[in-house]
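Technical note accompanying the year-one report. For the benefit of new consortium partners, we illustrate the data format agreed upon in the data management plan: each record pairs a sequence with a structure-token string. No post-processing was applied to the example shown here.
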Amino acid sequence: PDPDQVLVDIADYVLDFKVTSRGAFETARYCLIDALGCGLEALGYPACSKLLGPIVPGTVVPEGARVPGTDFQLDPVQAAFNIGTLIRWLDFNDTWLAAEWGHPSDNLGGILATADWLSRTRMAHGQAPLEMRRVLEAMIKAYEIQGVLALENSFNRVGLDHVVLVKVATAAVCTWLMGGGRQEIINAVSQAFVDGQPLRTYRHAPNTGSRKSWAAGDATARGVLLALFSLKGEMGYPTVLSACTWGFYDVLFKGQAFRLSRPYGSYVMENVLFKISFPAEFHAQTAVECAMQLHRQVKAKLDESGVDAIKRIELQTQEAGMRIIDKTGLLHNYADRDHCLQYMVAVPLIFGRLTADDYGDSIAADPRIDALRGLMEVRENPQFT
């Protein structure tokens, strides 16, 4: 059958759209710097670094992709997992908020691994490496695919994790970086939608866990793998979305087709959000900002009379904030804490800071944190939503 229009539009955009926006290229450069910074900082956390390296220890791939900050030289799929996991680990990289939120720089795992592997391979054969402008263009297009699909299509409302869009975007642009044409891109993107998609259960109570920190690395690596398969001539599935009974829409999206409110361009890169101040889920950023400003006032009360000096702490947030990070009761681990609005507010109220280390067990053991959490009332402000 003829391929679904969604697949065609993605392929045509990746192949034919000329990025002319200077602002998009400048922002892409900032996003690259920001993502690399997040990744290098994550190297200091053993829970992250233990996942890095080749599948079989000691494996070195000739002309393989390098993992920044390490000695690893890997095949592009495993390198994509490594880089993507580093970038995402601290929940500090850039963000896109829409019907489906996500982190477009997650795609850099696949883009950087593919570009580095291609460049080293070319240089080994006396050819010129890729230019950084092409890498930035791949970033702009990956951001756009993920972000435009997210604008009006909520995957979280059907229980799916947003990293499905990372896989789709990475598959599209990495196929293009590898020299694939229209059919290869359509095939790779269709394969990304065929995959059974990750459940969000690892982001929510009672199962919140560290997979949420490597899920994006897994998705961008899978995108590279599917791109490689397509370049080898593996077939695609043209009506993967719309096929009656067995397609993505009927199986996973309650029978609803995707709604696309704007054509692909450079809109997402030009409007992406940075987490300038805090390694915290984005819906909590302004609440943490307020807590930082209130720190001195609250600290004085705590020093004088303890938690008993505070009667109530009121938080207003968006519907998404209520659904994702409004948590009461016991928090079991780092991953639970960095997605708890009340925890992210209590720490700066007490200490006047919020860093990645503050989600660790030693800080969480301070009894004042849970005491303040118990005084918090969280409600939705429809205007914020």
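Partners are asked to follow this layout when depositing records. DSSP finds 17 helices and four strands in the chain.
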